[in-house]
Each structure stands twice: as structure tokens, then as C-alpha cells.
Amino acid sequence: MAEDSVDIIIDRIRSAYGTNRVEDALAILLELHPADRAEVFNLLTDAEKSALFSLLDVPTTADLLEELEDEEALEAIVSLSPERLADVLDEMEPDEAADLLGDLTLEQATAALAEMEDAEEVIPLLGYPDQTAGGLMTTSFVALRRHTTTEQAIQFLRQVRPEIEIPYYLYVVDREKRLIGVVGFRELVISNPSDTMDSIMDPDVRYISVGTDQEEVARLMTRYDLAAVPVVDDQHRLVGVITHDDILDVIEEEATEDIYRLANVFDTDLDPQSPISEQLKGRLPWVYLNMVTALFASWVITNFEGLIAQVAILAAFQSVVAGLGGNTASQNVAMIVRALALGKIDPKKLWKVTIRQVLVGMLQGIAVGIVIGFGVALWQNNLYLGVILALAMVGNMIVAGIIGTLVPLGLRAIGLDPALASSVLVTAVTDSAGFFIFLSLASLFITYL
Amino acid sequence: MAEDSVDIIIDRIRSAYGTNRVEDALAILLELHPADRAEVFNLLTDAEKSALFSLLDVPTTADLLEELEDEEALEAIVSLSPERLADVLDEMEPDEAADLLGDLTLEQATAALAEMEDAEEVIPLLGYPDQTAGGLMTTSFVALRRHTTTEQAIQFLRQVRPEIEIPYYLYVVDREKRLIGVVGFRELVISNPSDTMDSIMDPDVRYISVGTDQEEVARLMTRYDLAAVPVVDDQHRLVGVITHDDILDVIEEEATEDIYRLANVFDTDLDPQSPISEQLKGRLPWVYLNMVTALFASWVITNFEGLIAQVAILAAFQSVVAGLGGNTASQNVAMIVRALALGKIDPKKLWKVTIRQVLVGMLQGIAVGIVIGFGVALWQNNLYLGVILALAMVGNMIVAGIIGTLVPLGLRAIGLDPALASSVLVTAVTDSAGFFIFLSLASLFITYL
After folding, report:
1. Which of A267, A361, A363, B359 is surrounded by the most beta carbons within 10 Å?
2. CA-CA distance, B287 to A247, in Å (whole number)?
3. Residues A338 and A223 occupy one common structural domain
4. Nearest to A29 by CA among A50, A4, A2, A56
5. Do residues A40 and A161 share a domain?
6. Which pLDDT does position B2 carry in this prediction?
7. Measuring CA to CA, which residue among B317, B302, B428 is closest to residue A297?
8. Which among B40, B44, B24 has a CA at the least distance from the CA of B32?
């Protein structure tokens, strides 16, 4: 929905609400697609929200809660009685209901579960961590036995109609509920009524284990262009299904996480409209960390205080060496982080990759060193300053190549997020090394400067 | 497929090929899922590739080309005659065939099109830019008229069986081929044979215009959880369909682009395994740009050469002011870039967002300034140095807040990618401003230092 139509709709709702036509305001809200309704709802005032929310019927409330962000959903449900909340949770997709229950206090969650009719669909999901296949999957899927005919399958689908939310595939399981095949709705449509699932299913079905990390799930579904993937437990029993829309959210979440971590914003939920206090909580600790690393680099320079007092011009160029090293290191980190995220680095070739990235750093150092060395030698009319600058540039770019590659690879190797090798940590090294190399070289050649 | 199984398969292919059992090598390749086959194929030597490629039948060749990256596909097809290439293109999905044709020389493309049987499916796609809905969509979809019954539709599907590659929806069009509704395969399954499309279709179908940018397509499909979206021309005629798997690629591409641009890597196709010469081509120009901005910052410092000669310790702390400013600016840029990419900033609230981000910068400046001011005053036993450092920090963080917010927003406003406000450009300002503010303050208070 375009921005201006959102504004128009909010104005209409507001003017209806403001003149006590709450029912009219509700009618406008109900006309919208659930995704748009959630956006509009979010932009209302608290008073408007609670007035309208209390008028929604159970299915509409369930839809709205599914579309709202976790925190917004929590705010919206405070006014609901445990009985009403249980009705709404029964109506929600089991995976969404489990997510919401997981955000409640233990007391609230227990009260709601006690009142729910379909609690048994949701309870198994509560045990899975959010960022695993188990946390993403829904338990509302259709599983058939191998001797079921197409006709029986269609009959069955007509009966359970309102419950199916995954319109792409049916799964075939054996007596022990172990996954043995998949049937697309398309095959169902074009088969003979007497064909059994056995004969029309694809037995070579791709599946995911329930504990698999969500990034791995996203990679598999992207790679094989899957609209949905079945999830099995350690006995190979079918326990859930993950659909493409869950994966889109995961991919966007993971990209945001990488972008934020590389820029030292460590709370992925932040955006420019987040309250100032939350922004400071998610950003300031890393600025403080940067302060510590920057002071370390300052300490490196203080060791050359006498040198700088003699040749003050060095102070003008030390930062160029440090800064360009940081630039090259950041390039390396970004490339390694992204390649790891997309599964593009062959673990057998880590050394080859490292050597290549260091070579790229060195060549960038030579390329920039020659130009800047000449330029500064002419500008400052000081050949030795140019030579020192060029040499320091090459040296620091090699450091940048090594650090920018090994730090993210090393973090990954010990099971941490490679994006933690963000600019602060890696440039801490290139800054200090840059100052040290440049000023050390200057000390050696001080008689010529 | 796990990395080790890729290696095992390559070893098996290689040993078969090495002992002249090319047919065995082929058989191993053919057992794989097309996506895995493409990965394995890519890792073979040129000689192995061309030997095996020439043995593939037309449908397998088509599958392989669909899975390979653009450049790899171009390399693979050089050995094909125009006739053979035409057969393969006929077998490919129309959108994939159009992509490949678009990468050929005009001469090659014309020769292949002249030989193709289904050229009329592909030709309309050639005119659409790659990054628009027209460039993403396929023309192989099923469109039915409103009076078609479920039974007729199923009959029709049984006939065209091999051609449908979009197993989720059927579209309903009027006499002028204008889109009027959508029917899921699920509805088809559970309807009565005599129901017409009219009665079971959802007339409120979401669609995309053929010229829409791919990022906008991705946003719409993510927002409304669509597995496929129909594409219409300016007469509202149905011209194609975009499926969820195309969108996954778009989302990953856009995220890579943002991450790379923010880190000053300007060729999105690069990864750590790219040849050194290509890496230098995509990275070095931005290091040179950084060199220019860094030299500008150096020039700022040269204006204070006399000051630094007197108080050399200033050289140790000037970089702290510059660096922390750069850190805060990068945080702002990342947050704005990501929020714009995900459509999270309300254009009516740009000023509110800007003011908030500047306030965050100022507060971070105060928070860091107090700590670092005290710390350095004690460390260097120089109260005024601490005060100057603290004041400069606040000043530069305000600059960082302004630049880190306005530059990406401004780039967007003039139609450029906000991620171009990458670290080099924004930190050029925070570096120069940091040096200038700190050293100017030091000049004012020089008698106390």
C-alpha cells in the first residue's frame, strides 16, 4: 500500500473515531488486507487502538496479532481476558501462537494454555529455540498414508478445508509418521481418482531436521527453490512444515543483522524511528569499545611524541596510513561475511582465500602507495616523507588483508558470528599498526625529514 | 548438499573421467539435483566441463544453464551450434532463456532466435530491463476464462501438464486478456466439477505492473506472503508471473549490494574467490577515492602544523575525535540504509527522524566525551586537554549525526542508492571535521596546554 493511501485511511478512521462513529472506524479497518491493517493499526494512538481492538472478533484479532511485530502484539493483548486470549490463540497459526506465548510471562502463558482447545498443537512448538527450524515451522499441515487414493485425499481436503494454511504440498508418511514422500496439489489435480499417494508422490523429498539453524533453512530453500519444506525429528517423523514466507523474513533479518553488526549497531530491532533511549542502549556500548581501541592507538602515538615535536608534519599523514588500511580491511570483512552467509566459501580453500585476500591488500597498498608517495613528496617537497608514506601504506595494507580476512574466518571457526569482526575491532588493529609502522619508519629516517 | 559430499562426488567424476569412463562420469552428474549438479559442474576443469557438457541431452542442458550464474552459462554455451542452442533455449523457462539471450551478442541472439520454435514466448521478455518485474517474470503461466468449469480446467491442466512450472495459482482473464481473478490449486481440488472459475476465484488479486522495480516487487511479495504474483501491462492485461524463488534471489542480491557498498566494494559479483584482477577493479577505485578524502583531512591538519610542533601530544588524540565520529556516522548510515531498503521510514517523518538521529549523535558525544575527557585529563595530567577533547567529541558527534542521516536520505531523494553514503564519503566529513574542531579548540586554549 502506498504511503499516501495509508495517510488517507488513517485520516478517515480518525475522523470517524473522533465523531464517535467507532463502528465506522472499525469498518474501514476491516476492509484492509491483514498486512495493511496491521500497519494502519500501528499508526493509531493508544486510545484509538484499544477502542478498536476490543471490537474485533476472534478471527480478526488472530489475523492482526499474526501480522504485528512481537512487541506490538504484546501491547495489544494486555486488555484481553485469559479466556478470550485462549480463543484467539486457538485461531492463530500454531507457530505464531507459540511465538506469542513464548513472549508472555510464564503465569500468563500457563493461564492461556489451560483455556485453549488446541493447546496440544502449540505446546510441542514451545520447546524449540526461535531461530531453529522448530521455531519457524507450523504444525498445521496435511499428512496422508501411502495407500490413500487421490479421491480419498480430495474428500479429506474438502472436510478439513478451513484448517489448511499451506496450499502447496501434501506429505505422505508411514505407520510411524515417518516422512516418505511429497505430493504437489498440481499432481493431485491431474491424477486419476484411483491413483494412490504411493504412485504419484515424489519419494525423493528434501527435508530439514528440527534443530537446524534458520540460516541453513533459508540456504536450502533458496538453493532448491522450495515453496515449503517438511521438518522431521530425530526419528525422521514429520513434525512440521516451513513455508517460503517465513524464509523471506529470516533472510531479511539475517541481512539486517550483518549490516548492523558491520556498522557496530548491535540491536537488530533498532531502526531510525526507535526511541532515543533504545538507540543509545544498542549503540553506545560499541562506541565505548571503539573509544578504548582508539585510546590504544593514541597510546601508540604518544610513544612518538618527541618525533612529532621535531617533525610536526608527520601528524598530518599518520591518519592517511591508518584510514586507508581500515578501508581495505573493511572491504575484506564485508566480502568474507557475505560469502560465509551465502555459503560461498569452500572450507577446504580457506588458506587459498586468505592468501588471495592478503595479496589483494598488498597490491592495493602498492597501487595507492606509489600515487600518494609521489603526490606527497611533491606537495611537501620532501622525497623521504613520500617514500616512508608509500612503504607504510604497503605494510599496513598487508596487515589489513590479514586481519580483515582472518578475524571473520576465525570468529566463524570458533562458532561466533563473523560479522562481529566489525569495523571497530578490525580497524583498531589497522589504526594502531598504521600509526606504528609509519612513525617507526619516520624514526629510522628522521635525519632525512 | 554438504561440502564433503561435493568433494566426494567430484573425486568420483574425476576418477571416472581420468580413466576414460566419460559415460560413468556423466551418470554420476545426472544423479544429482539440478542445483547440486550446477555446483559440481562449476568446480570441474574446463576440459572436464566441455567433455561432459557435450554429452548432456537438451532438457538436461537447459536445466543446467538455468542453474548456472550468467557468466558461467555464457562460457558453457560457446561450443553449441545455433540450432542446438535454439533447442536448448526452447526447453528453458522463457524468463531464463530471455536472460541468456540478453547476454549474447546481437548476432548470436538473432541466429538463435531465428532457429527457435517458441521464440514468440521469449521475444516480448527481451525488451524489459533485468531489474524490473518484466525482467523477472516468466510467461509460462495458466490463464483461464471466467466461465470455464473446474472440470474443464482440470482437463486442460492434464493436457498441458509438461509446460506448467508454476504450481500454485491459475489466473482468470477476460476477453481482452485483462486479469480479473486468481484461483489456487487448492480451491480447484476442493470445488465441485461444475463450479465455474467465476464462482471460485478471488477477484481481489494483487498484481504488479511490468515496469515495477525488483526491490518493490520483493517488498510486496514479502509483505503479503505471496508465493507468486501476476504481472500486468498498462492495459491491465496479464503478461507474466513472478514466483517466490525469483524474489529470494532479489532479496539476497539487494542485501549483498547494500553490505558491499557500505564497505566500499562496488562490484556486487565479487567474492573472496574472485580473481585478484577483478577484485582490484571493483575495490581499488574506492580506495583511491578514500585516498583523496584522506589527503583533504591531512591538509586540514597541515594548517595546524605550528600548533602540533608546540604541543605534539595533540597528534595522539586528534584521531580519537575523528574515529569515534566516523563510528557514529556509520551507525546512522547503516540504520537509514536498512530502514529505506525495508520501507520502514515514513517520508512524512524525515525531519523527525533526522532530528532524532542528530540527538542520538549528540548524546553519544556527551556520554563518550565525559568519560574520555576525564580519562585523558588524568592520564596526561592535563585538565584542559581533557576538556578540549570532550568538547570536540560532542561537536564531531553532532556532525556525524547530521551527515550520517542527511547524506543517505539526500541520495535517496535525488534517486541514487542511499548505500553510496558509504564509510568513505561520510567519514571523509567526520575525519576532516574532527581534526578541525579539535585542533581549532586547541589553538584557542593553547596557553593552557
Report:
1. A361
2. 36
3. no
4. A56
5. no
6. 58
7. B317
8. B40
Q: Which residues pair with B209 in a beta bridge?
A: B232
Same domain, B390 and B306: yes
pLDDT at B166: 57
- Name residues 196-255 of chain B within 8 A of A (Cβ): 221-225, 227, 244-245, 247-249, 251-252, 255
Are A230 and A238 in contact by the 8 Å Cβ rule? The answer is yes
Residues B318 and B224 in one domain: no
Give the residue numbers spanning the domain of B421. Answer: 276-448
CA angle, A241 as apex, A237 and A242 as ends, to 5°? 140
ipTM above 0.85, yes or no: no
- The mean pLDDT of A180-187, rounded to a whole number, is 87
Residue B219 near residue B241 (C-beta atoms within 8 A): no
Q: Which residue has the cell 578501508?
A: A327
Task: Note which residues in 23-82 of chain B have CB less than 8 A from chain A.
Answer: 33, 35
Q: Which residues in chain B have Cβ-Cβ distances shorter than 8 Å to A249?
A: 222
Residue of A nearest to B254 (CA): A255
Q: Which of residues 420-439 of A touch B (CB under 8 A)?
A: 423-424, 427, 431, 435
Residue B442 CB contacts under 8 Å (≥ 6 apart), including other chains:
B304, B307, B311, B314, B388, B449
What's the pLDDT tens digit per position in A293-350?
999 999 999 999 999 999 999 999 999 999 999 999 999 999 999 888 887 787 778 8
B224 and B288, same domain (yes or no): no
CATH number for position B206: 3.10.580.10
- Span B87-140, pLDDT tens digits: 999 998 888 888 888 888 888 888 889 999 988 888 888 888 888 999 889 888
What's the mean per-residue pLDDT of chain B?
88
Q: Is residue A375 part of a domain?
A: yes
CA distance B114 to chain A (A): 31
- The residues, ordered by sequence, that sit 6+ positions from A93 with a Cβ below 8 Å of its Cβ are A66, A138, A140, A165
- Whether the per-residue pLDDT at A263 is higher than 80: the answer is yes
Query: How many angstroms away from the CA of B207 is the closest CA of chain A?
Result: 12
**Distance of alpha carbon B332 from alpha carbon B319, whole angstroms:** 20
Residue type, B390: A
Residue where a domain terminates, one of B128, B156, B180: B128
User: Among A198, A217, A252, where does a domain finish?
Assistant: A252
Count of domains observed in chain B: 3
Domain CATH for A428: 1.10.357.20
Biggest alpha carbon–alpha carbon distance for chain A = 96
Same domain, B183 and B158: yes
In three state form, how does the secondary structure of A391-415 look?
HHHHHHHHHHHHHHHHHHHHHHHCC
pLDDT at residue B161 in the model = 63
Quick one: which of B73, B230, B55, B39 has its CA closest to A344? B39
Do the domain assignments include residue B437?
Answer: yes
Give yes or no: residues B338 and B215 share one domain. Answer: no
Confidence tier at A370 by pLDDT (50, 70, 90): very high
Report which of B201, B62, B170 is spatially closest to residue A190, judged by C-alpha positions.
Answer: B170
Task: Provide the CATH number for the domain around residue B66.
Answer: 1.25.60.10
**A55 φ, ψ (degrees, to nearest 5):** -90, -10
Closest residue in A to B259 (Cα) is A259
pLDDT for position B165: 54
pTM of the prediction? 0.78
Instruction: Write phi, then psi, for B281 (nearest 5 degrees).
Output: -65, -40
Q: Is residue A268 part of a domain?
A: no
Q: Are A227 and A292 within one domain?
A: no
Q: Is residue A355 domain-resident?
A: yes
Which chain A residue shows the shortest CA-CA distance from B307?
A: A312
Question: What tens digit of pLDDT does each residue of B27-70 get?
Answer: 888 888 888 888 888 888 888 888 888 889 999 999 898 888 88
Give the residue-averaged pLDDT of A138-146. Answer: 88
| pLDDT value of residue B361 | 94
Phi, psi of B132 (to 5 degrees): -115, 170
pLDDT at site A340: 87
